[in-house]
Design brief:
3 domains; 36% helix; alpha/beta; 489 residues; single chain; Rossmann fold; globular; 19 helices; 6-stranded parallel sheet
Length: 489
């Protein structure tokens, strides 16, 4: 068989069902081999979208998502999305086609030092050396992506290896088993009255409630680039200043924690590899922490929508929350100012946000992967109008693949996060260059075959959302909103 057949059959042995991919010269043998291996090709419109989908798959399922792109510029297009996955500690494998080995150094078509390019934004990055070892390369990449602190791994495969004949066995499922890190030295809770667990992105996905039940210690997760100012975590800064012992569970003392300055002087901060054996009786402190994290400005309850004007984000979220109250719902949020409002106001059993990288643009690919992973779950994505432009063509992917998620676009006709920086730093008269048009993104989505609605005044929102959810199609409801800064407490 060919190297491409070995690779495809090894992916199937690992339990992979979907390849998030964009075609190109270097990877067409894999497209052919995928047919016999019964791998589904989710064919996207931009290589970064393929990586974002693999990222969301990894976060939601715990198994590495697989992205497949062509070499050269296709590989380069995919790299930016790796940074989002790396910061979110998301397991995925990016497989890139590559110029053939016998042409390297001679000016081969789309020749590029691909492994070197991907190395800074991956856990590991290398180029395959032999067609006979492609299965072993895949096993290594899979286990590296999922073991320890999860993250993206890159493997480049010269296309002569994909076409070359091989005589190597297909690995069995057991070879893809992931090792669990063993516990390290325990942590003493002696004299701690207000202990706190702060989990990083990967540890958050193990379940904060389960961590609390096992330890009796209040646990919170941090995955927003806003750090201690994350509107979704209420009075987090107050909680951090009140704790006398903080266990960082898969969480670095990084910029989100002001490099440790967010804690009170004298607070003991410990990087914990395990919480096994820890137990505290801190029920009152747990209740205090929960109340602080759930706190929202009381005036939000009295915000009334102007029925004949653009929506206030809080009023918009009240309507969207009704959709997320459905059993098993998945909430996807992009970044930016509108994303901060939705992250603060909306909740669902499962959530994916842009993550610590602070990048924007991934919401539509995230939503598509979420619908593939959980076809029966309602999936609602919220994103700003600037963000929508990054991957709006992925609406076409959703239509082709029958992925009926709902995207709600908060449209204030501006790059609002940067506009707010301009207002604060330079003043209103110099707030220039961040304007956008009030484009009818609902009409754009409808032109691609999705259900699309444009809501210009708030009174039209409830009916538009209802029609979108009944459509049975991928849907985009574009809502004009007030141009407001992100919430600050």
């Amino acid at each position: 068989m060919r190297g491409a057949d070995l690779l495809a059959q090894a992916l199937a042995a690992a339990g992979v069902h979907h390849l998030f991919t964009l075609s190109g010269n270097h990877v067409m043998p894999v497209f052919d081999a995928a047919l016999d291996a019964k791998l589904s090709l989710v064919h996207v419109r931009h290589e970064a979208a393929a990586v974002h989908m693999a990222d969301a798959w990894g976060r939601l399922t715990g198994e590495p998502g697989i992205a497949l792109v062509t070499g050269g510029p296709g590989h380069a297009n995919a790299i930016s999305a790796l940074y989002t996955a790396l910061a979110a500690e998301s397991p995925l494998v990016l497989i890139s086609g590559h110029a053939p080995t016998d042409e390297l150094g001679k000016g081969a078509f789309q020749e590029m030092r691909q492994a070197d390019m991907a190395a800074p934004v991956t856990k590991a990055s290398w180029t395959a050396r032999s067609a006979d070892t492609l299965a072993a390369d895949l096993v290594r990449a899979w286990r590296e992506a999922a073991s320890g602190t999860p993250g993206p791994v890159h493997l480049s495969i010269p296309n002569d290896m994909l076409d070359g004949r091989v005589d190597a066995p297909v690995p069995d499922a057991a070879e893809f088993s992931v090792f669990t890190e063993k516990s390290t030295a325990g942590v003493s809770l002696e004299d701690a009255k207000r202990p706190l667990v702060i989990a990083g992105p990967a540890m958050m996905r193990k379940g904060l409630h389960a961590l609390e039940e096992a330890t009796g210690i209040p646990a919170l997760g941090m995955e927003s680039p806003r750090g201690v100012n994350d509107p979704a975590l209420g009075r987090l800064a107050q909680v951090l200043r009140s704790a006398d012992l903080v266990l960082l569970f898969g969480k670095r003392r990084d910029f989100t924690l002001q490099f440790g300055e967010a804690f009170a002087p004298g607070c003991r901060v410990v990087e914990a590899q395990t919480l096994e054996g820890l137990r505290a009786n801190a029920s009152e402190w747990r209740e205090e922490v929960h109340a602080a994290l759930a706190w929202r400005p009381p005036q939000w309850k009295s915000i009334a929508a102007n029925p004949d004007g653009p929506a206030h984000p809080v009023a918009l979220c009240r309507e969207v929350q009704k959709l997320l109250d459905a059993r098993g719902a998945i909430f996807v949020s992009d970044g930016g100012e509108f994303g901060q409002w939705t992250q603060a106001c909306l909740s669902a059993p499962r959530r994916i946000i842009n993550g610590p990288a602070g990048s924007i643009g991934a919401a539509l690919p995230f939503a598509a992967a979420a619908k593939l992973a959980f076809p029966d779950a309602p999936v609602v994505a919220t994103l700003g109008d600037g963000t929508f432009g990054f991957h709006m063509a992925e609406i076409d992917t959703a239509v082709r693949c029958g992925l009926d998620y709902l995207a709600v676009v908060g449209n204030d006709a501006t790059w609002n996060a940067e506009y707010q920086i301009q207002l604060r730093a330079y003043g209103k008269d110099r707030a220039k260059g961040c304007e956008l048009l009030p484009t009818r993104y609902g009409a754009v989505a409808a032109a691609m075959g999705a259900h699309g609605e444009d809501v210009h005044v708030f009174r039209g929102l409830p009916d538009a959302l209802a029609r979108a959810t009944r459509s049975g199609k991928p849907a985009c409801v574009n809502v004009m909103i007030e141009r407001l800064p992100a919430p600050k407490y």
